[in-house]
Amino acid sequence: VILEPTGGSAGQVPVPESFLHGLREATADRDVLLIFDEVITGFRCSPGGMQGVCGITPDLTTMAKIVAGGFPGGAVGGRRDVLDLLDHAAAADAGREKIAHQGTFNANPISAAAGVATLGIVKQSDACERANRYAAELREGLAKIVRDESLPWIVYGTFSSFHIFTNPERDDVTADQIELGRYDWRRIKAASASPVAKELRLGLLTQGVDLAGWPGGLTSAVHTNDDLEATLSAFRDVARTIDS
Ligand SMILES: Cc1ncc(COP(=O)(O)O)c(C=O)c1O
Question: What pLDDT score does 244 carry?
Answer without folding.
Answer: 78
